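Saturday, quiet lab. Running sequence design on the structure tokens for the scaffold JK sent over.
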């Protein structure tokens, strides 16, 4: 048996915009509560953080969707907020999602953050990657990830998911130097986290900037983009990078110039138009509406084929959703989504 090198895995080739026999496919949040086998492990572990911090359990849930759906990539089971915990912030997950009970508000809080040394404080991620790679088929890619500085700052300062980002925006405008110090620390942490995961065998890396699109273009250019650009500059060449930014149609052309090899689009952006707008500078990932998977399998297949028809013949597409799989999703609909991509093999 010959062994496939990282360079030959479909997703890596798509990110290089090579013509391929079919479009590779994976899903954001492909491991999660919509899968009964995930809920069973979570029950046994006693909670989300217990799963993430236990490499055997993290590897097991990483592999669940790969076994069930034969997606083209595994994404390591962890969270973008784990580095904040490693830097000294308290972090819990409850039914509503992440909560940081002691958010940063003073300059001393930012100064007290510990630099991130992934081999020490995130060693459980490295071990999960090793266990997953051992079980993965040769042709399946392994994806690592981090949060972009602005999105991490939103959680560190807001203390959880809020709609308005009033605390973050207040800090940003009124105490800009503290905000910038925080962004510097988070950019260092994000780059270190990506380097660690690439060293531990990841074929591709995703930088999640979920909240960047909440900024208008002028503020994004001033308060978010420089640090995302820095993370991408500091990780150039280690593995292809995909930049995800939700609700960022207004930033698409700028995002294409940030330095990532790929851009992940949410469902609000027209994919075929996005190929025109970005002019072949980057590969594009996306972008079926996650809520479309709440329709039946036939409707999912119809919509997936329609999406693929729209961009047929364009190199550089990785099929995915526009955001994570919703917990109400029927696994049969995920199967229909993956099958639609695979049955188009030429
Ligand atoms: O399968 C995968 O996608 C890999 C693992 C992964 C998780 N979170 C697991 C998770 C990844 C890549 C993330 C990224 C992440 N985490 C982002 C960026 C992407 C995005 O969704 O915009 C953000 C903003 C977070 C922070 C976070 N973690 C939130 C807002 C929530 C609550 C929302 C929710 O879906 O419950 C989490 C919890 C979380 N992270 C779960 C999972 C599987 C649910 C945990 C559970 O209750 O079992």
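Result came back. Writing it out in full:
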């Amino acid at each position: 048996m010959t062994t496939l090198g990282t360079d030959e895995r479909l997703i890596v080739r798509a990110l290089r915009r090579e013509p391929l026999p079919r479009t590779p496919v994976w899903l954001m949040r492909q491991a999660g509560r919509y899968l009964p086998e995930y809920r069973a492990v979570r029950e046994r572990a006693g909670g989300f953080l217990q799963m993430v911090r236990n490499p055997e359990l993290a590897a097991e849930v990483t592999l669940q969707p790969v076994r069930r759906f034969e997606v083209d990539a595994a994404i390591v089971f962890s969270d973008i907020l784990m580095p904040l915990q490693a830097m000294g912030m308290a972090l819990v997950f409850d039914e509503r999602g992440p909560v940081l009970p002691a958010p940063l508000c003073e300059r001393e809080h930012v100064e007290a953050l510990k630099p991130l040394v992934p081999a020490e404080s995130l060693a459980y991620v490295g071990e999960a990657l090793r266990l997953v790679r051992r079980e993965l088929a040769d042709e399946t890619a392994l994806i690592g990830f981090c949060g972009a500085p602005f999105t991490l700052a939103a959680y560190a300062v807001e203390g959880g998911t809020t709609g308005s980002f009033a605390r973050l925006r207040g800090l940003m405008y009124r105490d800009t130097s503290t905000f910038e110090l925080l962004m510097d620390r988070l950019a260092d942490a994000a780059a270190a986290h990506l380097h660690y995961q690439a060293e531990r065998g990841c074929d591709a890396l995703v930088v999640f900037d979920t909240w960047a699109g909440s900024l208008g273009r002028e503020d994004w250019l001033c308060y978010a983009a420089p640090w995302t650009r820095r993370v991408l500059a500091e990780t150039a060449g280690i593995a292809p990078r995909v930049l995800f930014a939700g609700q960022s149609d207004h930033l698409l052309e700028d995002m294409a110039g940030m330095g990532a090899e790929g851009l992940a689009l949410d469902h609000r952006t027209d994919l075929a138009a996005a190929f025109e707008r970005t002019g072949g500078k980057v590969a594009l990932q996306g972008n079926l509406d996650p809520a479309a998977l709440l329709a039946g399998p036939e409707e999912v297949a119809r919509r997936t084929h329609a999406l693929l028809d729209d961009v047929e013949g364009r190199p550089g597409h990785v099929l995915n959703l526009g955001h994570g799989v919703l917990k109400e999703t029927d696994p049969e609909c995920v199967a229909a989504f993956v099958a639609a991509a695979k049955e188009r093999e030429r």
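Notes for JK: The chain has one domain: 6-342. The pocket of coproporphyrinogen III is lined by residues 28-33, 42, 48, 75, 77-81, 93, 97-98, 145, 161, 208, 210, 324 (CB under 6 Å). Ask whether to fix the surface positions before the next round.
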